[in-house]
Amino acid sequence: MIPSIQQLNKETPQNFIEAVNTLFETAPPLADRLLAARPYESYLQLIDYAEALCLGNELNDQEKLDVINAHPRIGASKAGLSAMSLKEQGYSERQGAVSSKDEKINTELARLNQEYEDKYGFKFVVFVAGRPRAQIIPVIQERIDSGDRQKEMTTGMVDMMKIARDRLQKATVSKI
């Protein structure tokens, strides 16, 4: 659960960053800038500011890579995912064996993730929006085939913000 925006504005730096990381995963360059820009009138304002930082010239190239690479790989091992990522990627929360079908999908996603990272130098980020992981395979393949690194960085950052807005909506409606 995330605190109200009024409480977030008063939090210690560590608690502020922990709350913000719920929305954005662990991305220190982004979290540090968001901390420095307090106070916010709403979480939507905070996400809009984060988007402006990521898509503008406020972050250098390495910081942008750090931000985008903070996201888990789609189809990654359940053990390494946050609770939000588990749900977003369609895993059940209970620990247990992955089905053979899921294992095949995850193997293909791992191969495609590696191909994408080798080509572009950063992780593939997509707003899953409840789609099964199998439906992401043609999406990542299409994005690999596009060959436009700058467009891919922008698409990944935009999708990160879609993920953050979706996480915010799921976390609370009344605290927006």
From TrEMBL:
Q: Which UniProt keywords apply?
A: Purine metabolism
**Keyword Membrane attached:** no
Q: What Gene3D superfamilies would the database entry show?
A: Oxo-4-hydroxy-4-carboxy-5-ureidoimidazoline decarboxylase
List the InterPro entries hit by this protein, alphabetically.
Answer: OHCU_decarboxylase, OHCU_decarboxylase_sf
Q: Which domain of life is it from?
A: Eukaryota
Q: Which GO terms describe its biological process?
A: purine nucleobase metabolic process
**Which residue range or ranges hold the Oxo-4-hydroxy-4-carboxy-5-ureidoimidazoline decarboxylase domain?**
10-169
Pfam families from the xrefs? OHCU_decarbox
Name the record gives this protein:
Oxo-4-hydroxy-4-carboxy-5-ureidoimidazoline decarboxylase domain-containing protein
- Its source organism is Circinella minor
Q: Taxonomically, what lineage is the organism?
A: Eukaryota, Fungi, Fungi incertae sedis, Mucoromycota, Mucoromycotina
